[in-house]
Amino acid sequence: MPLLNSAYRGLQRQLAEAGVSVLGSQIDLDLPLTDGVTPMALSDVSDPQLPTDLVAPHQLWEQQTGSCDLFVPMEKIRGGLPNLQPTTYLRMWEWREDMINLIGATSQITVRLRYEKVLPQLILGTDPVMIRASNDALAYATSALAARARGARALAADMEAAAYQATNDLIERYMRPEQFKGRRRKPYGYQRHVVYL
């Protein structure tokens, strides 16, 4: 079972690197009221803290706590949050060093977090595998790990090649439907403008 769990986690990482989210979840977090000037961070030790099964956040929305307003999507920033005057909303977020960094807000905010979860460990033979159609990829990868542990290098190399092919087939199965969606290229010189209210 340890070899199977290792192959299981490895397959989740390979799928994530190809842009396939395996197991998603969503949670609402009520942030405490601050002065709005101090930036906020959600981490494993903050209050409230990030979910213990979080691998990586995908999207965040915000709403004033207790209001009936719709959740508004927040903008994901890369390379550091800008130095902006605080408003009643957070507006932006950044994922860095296993923390979600936020600009402060002058009102109490509820954040809806959609994220990728850690796959639960397989303990019994009857435990469900949470990656659909992954039996071949997991079987070949587990066999390769077991053969390598026994010193059968030739068999391990064969099983690794079969696992690689099965994983690529699985990634292609997930990605191929996305390729046929209509997309339009952004015009040359296009710049995204953000309007802050």
Q: Any overview of this molecule?
A:
- The chain is α+β, with helices and mostly antiparallel strands and 197 residues long.
- It folds into two domains: 78 residues, no CATH class; 94 residues, no CATH class.
- It is built from three helices and eight strands; from the N terminus they run H-E-E-E-E-E-E-E-E-H-H.
- It has a four-stranded antiparallel beta sheet, with no helix packed on it. Strands 2-7-6-5 form a four-stranded mixed beta sheet, with no helix packed on it.
- The longest helix has 27 residues.
- The chain starts with a helix and ends in an 18-residue tail after the last helix.
- The mean pLDDT is 85.
